[in-house]
Amino acid sequence: MRFRGIVLPAAAVALCTSVMAQQPAPAAGPPQPGGGRGAQMADAGAPLRVLIYAGLKTHAPGQHDYPQFLADWSKILTERGAYVTGGLQFPAARELASADVLVIYKGDAGYLGTEDRAALDSFMRRGGGIVTLHDALCGPEPEAFAGIVGGAKKHGEVNYTLEADVPYTIVDTAHPIMQGMTNFSIKDEAFFNMTWSKAPEIKVLATATMAATPSAKGHEGEVVPQIWTYEKSLAPAPTGLPYRAFVWMQGHNYENFALPNVQSMLLRGIAWAGKRPVDSLMTVRPQRGGGRGRGTNPAAGGEGRGSRGGQ
Questions:
Q1: What pTM was estimated for this model as a whole?
Q2: Cα–Cα–Cα angle for 309, 179, 128, nearest 5°?
């Protein structure tokens, strides 16, 4: 997974400093420990507070476009009633303290300093959700990051197929995140040689068979989880609340974020990780000033760039 130059569009820089100013802060505070069932599940009527941790642009054009994700998905989520903040640096503890779910689309997010890991630990202890996309789960200590989201990969190892078909088999069609989804295939990058959490284990939603590419030599034909959930509590109740993680291991080719079935799955996954009804982000809300958003279903509008294909 070689990095092929770093580019930071001026628009992305402006976005990082203006995202928080675009929306009024919601009145609801973070879930409080010891609050019984109400503390386990967030208030479904309050805006879902999403914090996006993106990175600098890497790889070839159309690949690993982390700043574009920050721009596109801030809009997509805001149109659906979420309160969205974000940037290209790991969020400060105060930012995590006011978020319901942290969405990470940044290469090698497993590199966490002591202060950042402590802030993330506090976020998870109060039940904050985590969504990681593509190589966010890569880092120097996969065992540690696997303990956060259920699975991780070692930085520097050849553990990817690269520019190949990723044929998904949906193994849990009953899970709310996967509702209505059937087996499908995209051109992207799949990972193998994973380090997995043992206690608890992940809940596999979809697997893929590794393609016969030069980088996957000796691993072609292996069936490896590529989409999963992970639930864990870092402290016993009532001081600690269980948190949820949702992982989609693809996103190497940025256009795949615009696929209607993928976009719907990610919206449900973000809502699920934030302990909201899974369909709470599926409807585009009326805009201020009397205007209305386009459509009521991501499959109908295709808000992202380069929409192609479907379920």
A1: 0.81
A2: 105
DSSP summary character for residue 207: E
Is the per-residue pLDDT at 151 higher than 90? Answer: yes
CA distance 90 to 56: 12
Burial 20-46 (b: 16+ CB within 10 A, else e): eeeeeeeebebbeeeeeeebeebeeee
> Is the CB of residue 301 less than 8 Å from the CB of residue 294?
yes
Maximal CA-CA distance, the chain: 58
Instruction: Give the DSSP letter string of 15-56.
Output: HHHHGGGSSPPPS--PPPTT-THHHHS--TTSPPEEEEEE--
pLDDT tens profile 192-237: 999 999 999 999 999 999 999 999 999 999 999 999 999 999 877 6
Give the model's confidence band at 106: pLDDT under 50 very low, under 70 low, under 90 confident, else very high.
very high
pLDDT above 60 for 287: yes
Homologous superfamily in CATH for domain 10-21+46-301: Class I glutamine amidotransferase (GATase) domain (3.40.50.880)
Q: How far is CA 240 from CA 33, 36, 102, 128, in A?
A: 6, 11, 18, 11
DSSP 97-142: HT-SEEEEE-TTTT---HHHHHHHHHHHHTT-EEEEEGGGGEES-H
Contact 77, 281 (CB under 8 A): yes
Domain ranges in the chain?
A: 10-21+46-301
For β-strands 129-133 and 243-248, DSSP reports them as parallel
Q: Count CB neighbours of 60 within 10 A.
A: 10
